[in-house]
């Protein structure tokens, strides 16, 4: 089970390993005795050793900690979230919110319009298994509709003036929902718990499927 738990951390770390442009060397250069090869090999070796060290650190933590796969139990969810937080801190990985922020920036950087941006955020939220419990997305879309109705055309993200107007509308929505910037740490903690619960549900499903497969195999024998 530790390896399955660790896969979450490894995925987070993998998303952070960004090779500099100068490392994008054609494969043939790695077989030649040249200076670029030495630099490339040294860099790849350092990355490998770093990943290996983080992997071993995380495995050590997961072997020691007690994790109960019970997504329906708030205490079990909180304990799992605590363990994964420890793994991230000890291995210098991003938090879930930092990972999501990076993913948003990567996935939306080429989207020119505000509507496409909001729809992409909605799609990413759904894929993360998160619910829009406050109904904020619908309100944000209504705010966008209001701006675009006045413009009589789609709102582009490089339209600073009208994007500022949209942000002002979003601020009103936040006030209406009682969302305050100073409460961001609390929201992040809540997000961590929601994601922890979703991951435990996935682990429980995998465990049940594995047990069912093993049972069927035993009956056949």
Would you kindly provide a brief summary of this structure?
72% of the residues lie in helices and 0% in strands. It is built from eight helices and no strands.
How would you explain this protein's 3D organization?
It comes from Linum tenue. Pfam families: Mt_ATP_synt. InterPro entries: MGP1. Residues 156-217 form a coiled coil. By secondary structure, the protein is mainly alpha-helical. The protein is 72% helix and 0% strand. The protein contains eight helices and no strands. Helix 1 packs antiparallel against helix 2, helix 5 runs antiparallel to helix 6 and helix 6 packs antiparallel against helix 7 (160-177). The chain starts with a helix and ends with a helix. Mean pLDDT is 79; it is low at 1-35.
Chart the SSEs and their pairings.
Elements lengths: L1 H13 L20 H30 L9 H18 L4 H13 L5 H14 L8 H16 L8 H18 L6 H37 L1
Helix pairs in contact: 1-2, 2-3, 3-8, 5-6, 6-7
Which geometry do the CA atoms define? extended
Q: Would you tell me the structural class of the helices and strands?
A: mainly alpha
Distance between the termini: 26 Å
**Count of helices?**
8
Beta-strand proportion: under 5%
Low-confidence runs: 1-35
Largest sheet: none
Radius of gyration: 23 Å
Average pLDDT works out at 79
Tally of strands:
0
- Run of helices and strands: HHHHHHHH
Helix content: over 70%
Protein name: ATP synthase 24 kDa subunit, mitochondrial
Keywords: Coiled coil
Pfam families: Mt_ATP_synt
GO biological process, one term: pollen development
């Amino acid at each position: 089970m530790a390896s399955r738990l660790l896969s979450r951390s490894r995925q987070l770390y993998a998303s952070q390993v960004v090779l500099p442009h100068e490392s994008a060397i054609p494969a043939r250069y790695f077989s030649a005795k040249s200076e670029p090869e030495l630099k490339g090999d040294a860099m790849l070796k350092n990355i490998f050793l770093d990943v290996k060290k983080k992997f071993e650190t995380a495995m050590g933590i997961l072997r020691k900690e007690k994790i109960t796969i019970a997504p329906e139990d708030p205490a079990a969810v909180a304990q799992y979230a605590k363990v994964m937080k420890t793994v991230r801190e000890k291995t210098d990985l991003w938090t879930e919110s930092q990972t999501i922020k990076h993913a948003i920036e990567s996935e939306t950087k080429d989207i020119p319009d505000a509507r496409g941006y909001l729809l992409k955020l909605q799609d990413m939220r759904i894929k993360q298994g998160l619910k829009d419990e406050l109904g904020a997305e619908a309100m944000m879309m209504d705010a966008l509709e209001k701006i675009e109705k006045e413009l009589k055309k789609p709102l582009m993200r490089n339209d600073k003036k009208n994007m500022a107007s949209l942000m002002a509308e979003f601020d009103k929505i936040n006030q209406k929902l009682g969302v305050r910037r100073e409460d961001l740490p609390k929201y992040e903690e809540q997000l961590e718990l929601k994601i922890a619960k979703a991951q435990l549900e996935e682990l429980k499903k995998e465990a049940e499927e594995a047990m069912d497969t093993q049972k069927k195999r035993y009956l056949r024998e």
